[in-house]
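Board notes (copied after class):
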Amino acid sequence: MAQAASKTCEVCVSAPGSHYCIDCEEYYCENCKFVHNRQKLSKNHHFQKASDRIPEGKSKCSEHKEELTLICNTCKAHICTSCVTGKHNGHTFSKIADILLQLRGDNETKLRAKTNEANQNIKKMEESLKVFDNSVESVIKAINDEGIMIKRMVDKSVAQMIALVKEQSKKEKDKLMNMLSDAKSVLVGGQTLDRKRHELDKTRQDGSVVKKINNLKEEIDKLHINSLPEFPKISFSRKSVAEDDIRQLIGTYHISNCAPVLKVKEQRHGDLFRCSGCG
């Protein structure tokens, strides 16, 4: 195999370029290669020895010294036109230029298709993000609206319960007030009779006083003292409510997981190789 011409490092431009970066398509010396492999952007670049590089220019048939323009489909080897009638006689052939044209066309078509697919996917994802954001806002609004409605219902129930407490307690209080008024009336009547009693005690003791005292006795007997009532009591029993009960009352939400869709891996075939012996 022909040897590559001596190259100079394309970085420091002083030392021999003994290594070739396949990714950058540049020659590096030993030191610059070491630095290149330490850098973040190029740490995974691949190198080959400069001496293993195939010389630029047209490849020649080692047997006939003619340009290699064909590929033997039977042997998968690069051949020249003279090889067709030689040891490759009877085999099937393809022109390298036609294969390269087809490969380049296929690559362009695939790249264009993948680029279009990527653009469409990006567009769909951006649209989906907008829809998702709108959905999130809608869910948040629905949760807030539900919370406001529940708060109103709670406030309304509290107000109704307080109104019932006031109404029923007023009825019981009115009963007590009536009883208290009756008790005060009895007390006033008793005090009035007690004054009469004192006045009679001061009068002359004769027959007329007896009659008056009897009349006073009858009035005293008519005084009726009601027994003490069973006083009403009021209390409140708190119902135990946990935070989870409130959340369940509001409702629930669900977010599906975002997961990539797996595609069937493409099968590759018909790769083109270069012979290290003949180029």
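Comment from the instructor: The two ends are 8 Å apart (CA to CA). Helices lie at 30-38, 96-202, 207-222, 243-250.
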